[in-house]
Specification:
The chain is α+β, with helices and mostly antiparallel strands and about 140 residues long. It contains 4 helices and 5 strands, in the order H-E-E-E-E-H-H-H-E. It has a 3-stranded antiparallel sheet, covered by helices on one side. A two-stranded antiparallel sheet has the order 1-4. It is globular and about 40 Å long.
């Protein structure tokens, strides 16, 4: 499913620049469910953030995603983490994604494909944000 989704990120007005390795992580949010597989991709696009979000949601829908309870099991979940450093609360998507500093399963793959990237509002690298989360069990990277 992830390989297929990444393939879609190299189509329809998007160009895949790089993608991290897949990481298996403990569940996040609702922890009484199987481990997750996560990855981060970097793309180039001329789409607006809104158009990119619409496109990502169409990929999720094609993969069988049905929106339900927050953090419930899902076939695919695609998020925009950062969009050229834009900072905004509305309209969707909120940028940068507010969960970035709290999610090891996002920070570890960012470190792999964009080690010098800095969070647009915090000014920290992924490695700097990951350090205080090392003892966290939710969303912990289990293997790469």
């Amino acid at each position: 499913m992830l390989r297929r989704a990444i393939g879609y990120l190299n189509a329809s007005g998007c160009r895949l620049v790089s993608a991290s390795a897949f990481v298996r992580t403990s569940a996040y949010g609702k922890t009484d469910q199987p481990d997750f597989l996560n990855a981060v991709a970097r793309i180039a696009t001329r789409k607006t953030p809104e158009a990119l979000l619409d496109y990502l949601q169409s990929i999720e829908k094609e993969a069988g995603r049905r929106r339900g309870e927050r953090w419930s099991p899902r076939s695919l979940d695609l998020d925009i983490l950062d969009f050229n450093g834009i900072v905004r609360e509305t309209p969707p998507p909120v940028l940068p994604h507010p969960g970035i500093p709290h999610r090891p399963f996002v920070l570890r793959p960012i470190m792999e494909i964009a080690p010098h990237w800095r969070h647009p509002t915090l000014g920290k690298t992924a490695a700097q944000m990951l350090e205080p989360l090392q003892a966290q069990t939710e969303g912990r990277v289990l293997d790469c």
